[in-house]
Each structure stands twice: as C-alpha cells, then as structure tokens.
C-alpha cells in the first residue's frame, strides 16, 4: 500500500490534540512539521504547526490551493472552508 504524501494542498485529518478528527488543508511543510489551516478555528494567517506523525493524509488533493501556494500567495479562509465543507470525493 502506497503512502499518501503530506504536501501543500493535501487535506489531512488531525489524529492528536484538541483538534483531533478535524479536517484541515496543508499550507506548507518544513521538516517534520506541517502548517495546516481549516479556515474556521485555524485561519491561514496563523496556521497550526503539527508534527507529521499527528496528522493523516487523505486522498483529497486540492490542486487549485497548491497552485495558489506555489505562486507565493495564500488561499483565503473562505476558499478553504468551502472545500472542506464539501463531502469527500465531490468535485
């Protein structure tokens, strides 16, 4: 079974902490840490720094978010909320 990479634009599920079982989107990755936001409790202006071992990557990958991040910008909180509120797998 292949492992899903933790990368910018990838939806992840928190497996530890107060935000356990909460879906978020990875904004950046630095070493063993990923900076994630959900656009609601955790905004893009102050993303949550999570150890990679405390999050689980999901098959959901938002290429439009990854493109915005690759351009050196940040997506809006509304964009992230909209994507995360959709049922998984819906395009």
Write the layout of secondary structure elements.
Layout lengths: L9 E5 L8 E8 L2 E5 L10 E4 L3 E7 L1 H8 L6 H9 L6
Antiparallel strand pairs: 1-2, 1-5, 2-3, 3-4
By DSSP (H or I, 4+ residues per run), the number of helices equals 2
Total discrete domains: 1
Q: Flag low-confidence runs.
A: none
CATH architecture: Roll
SS elements, strand count: 5
Derived structural class: alpha+beta
Order of the strands making up the biggest sheet: 4-3-2-1-5
Task: Supply Rg.
Answer: 12 Å
Question: Helix fraction?
Answer: 10-25%
Strand content: 25-35%
CATH class categorisation: Mainly Beta
Mean pLDDT across every amino acid position: 93
What's the multimeric state?
single chain
Q: Distance N terminus to C terminus?
A: 25 Å
Describe the main β-sheet briefly. Answer: 5 strands, antiparallel
**Global morphology:** globular
Order of helices and strands: EEEEEHH
CATH topology assignment = SH3 type barrels
What does this structure look like?
The chain is an alpha+beta fold and 91 residues long. It has a single domain (10-85), classed as Roll (SH3 type barrels). Helix content is 19%, strand content 32%. The chain contains 2 helices and 5 strands. Strands 4-3-2-1-5 form a 5-stranded antiparallel beta sheet. A hairpin with a 2-residue loop joins strand 2 (23-30) and strand 3. The radius of gyration is 12 Å and the shape is globular. The mean pLDDT is 93.
């Amino acid at each position: 079974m292949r492992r899903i990479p933790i990368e910018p634009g990838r939806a992840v599920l928190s497996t530890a902490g107060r935000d356990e079982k909460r879906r978020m989107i990875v904004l950046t990755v630095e070493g063993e840490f990923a900076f994630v936001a959900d656009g609601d409790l955790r905004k893009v202006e102050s993303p949550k720094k999570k150890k990679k071992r405390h999050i689980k990557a999901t098959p959901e990958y938002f290429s439009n978010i990854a493109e915005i991040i690759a351009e050196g910008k940040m997506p809006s909180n509304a964009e992230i909320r909209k994507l995360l509120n959709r049922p998984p797998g819906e395009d």
